[in-house]
Amino acid sequence: MSYDLSRLGWDEFFASAYGHFDRSDAAPARVLRADRGVCTVLGEAGVTRASLSGSVLLSAAHDPVKLPCAGDWVVTRRWPDRRITLEAVLPRRTALIRRTSDKDSTGQLLAANMDTVAVVEPIHPEPDDARVERLLALAWESGAQPLLILSKSDTSSDPEAVARQLAELAPGIPVVPVSVRGTQGVEQIRAYAEGGRTLALLGRSGAGKSTLVNALAGAAVMPVQAIRDADGKGRHTTAYRNLVPLPGGGAVLDTPGIRGVGLLDTAEGLDRAFADIAELAAHCRFGDCRHGAEPGCAVAAALANGSLSPRRLASWRKLWHEVEIQTARQQARQAGAAGHRRRRG
């Protein structure tokens, strides 16, 4: 019995891209999990393992982001000796990329082709405002629709009040309190994966992502580590990206628990995550206003009248400074690579 790929989001966008590779020994599939040199994929024939071809490895030699990742749609090839290779990664509709810790400011692909990126932040012991803002900027930059999930809502006497407070950090983004124990919000979250859509979960270790995946799947498909009650922190329960098809169609993508997220060139993501400050800045007298002591600064005026908190402005300044530094490093690296190519030519 063949698997209907439309249940996983296969549509005209990916079918058109696949047309260039279509042949009798080829087939499309979606990556469930990517390991070193091999991927677990789901195609019409079911789940199988595919080793990376030389062409895929070569294209990713200078840019690891080109390697297949959970959520990617790929081209597989079956050989006469029954080997299966992954021959190409189809163009991505969306991509969740964070900056790695190296000095070259390269990117690490966390997930691909998701329709919604849900930032999962636990209510216990208390939400971290700065982390939420950083992750929402990353989610906006992916090209997918962001969502804020407040997990472990059963630990709060008034989760809706916490949701209203966090909504101030997430302009235009739905905020959903969720309790797997009491099933609060689970069906509301499930709706984001209906119709073949993909929901990616992003958050720190111990935030409850794997527990939520299990609740959505209706089975224990992801390992869950008990967290320490004192501080709400836990060890990394998911060390890899894992795409889980859901019984009713669609999929949820669990990403590794992350302690920190470096931003690359996420200027658009920051503008969306801090839409309130971006709107204020648009009304400053001068276009190059640095939002300090300049006359006619709408940001400074909002800070003075209390409509903008000093903490949020400081968070915005910090993230913009980080992005500016990483953008300069990227430009320097690209200029160096171009100069090297000219010298070799």
Automatic annotation (TrEMBL):
A Pfam family per the record: RsgA_GTPase
Coiled-coil residue spans: none
Principal location: cytoplasm
PANTHER family, sorted: SMALL RIBOSOMAL SUBUNIT BIOGENESIS GTPASE RSGA (PTHR32120:SF10)
Cofactor remark: Binds 1 zinc ion per subunit.
Cofactor(s) needed for function: Zn(2+)
Function: One of several proteins that assist in the late maturation steps of the functional core of the 30S ribosomal subunit. Helps release RbfA from mature subunits. May play a role in the assembly of ribosomal proteins into the subunit. Circularly permuted GTPase that catalyzes slow GTP hydrolysis, GTPase activity is stimulated by the 30S ribosomal subunit.
UniProt similarity note: Belongs to the TRAFAC class YlqF/YawG GTPase family. RsgA subfamily.
Source species of the chain: Paractinoplanes globisporus
EC number: 3.6.1.-
Taxonomic placement: Bacteria, Bacillati, Actinomycetota, Actinomycetes, Micromonosporales
PROSITE patterns recorded: ENGC_GTPASE
Protein name per Swiss-Prot or TrEMBL: Small ribosomal subunit biogenesis GTPase RsgA
Self-association and partners: Monomer. Associates with 30S ribosomal subunit, binds 16S rRNA.
Domain EngC GTPase: 112-259
Keywords on record: Cytoplasm, GTP-binding, Hydrolase, Metal-binding, Nucleotide-binding, Ribosome biogenesis, RNA-binding, rRNA-binding, Zinc
Signal peptide boundaries: none
Record: residues binding Zn(2+): 284, 289, 291, 297
InterPro entries: P-loop_NTPase (IPR027417), Ribosome_biogen_GTPase_RsgA (IPR004881), RsgA_GTPase_dom (IPR010914)
Binding site for GTP: 151-154, 203-211
Annotated NCBIfam families: ribosome small subunit-dependent GTPase A
Subcellular location: Cytoplasm
Root EC class: hydrolase
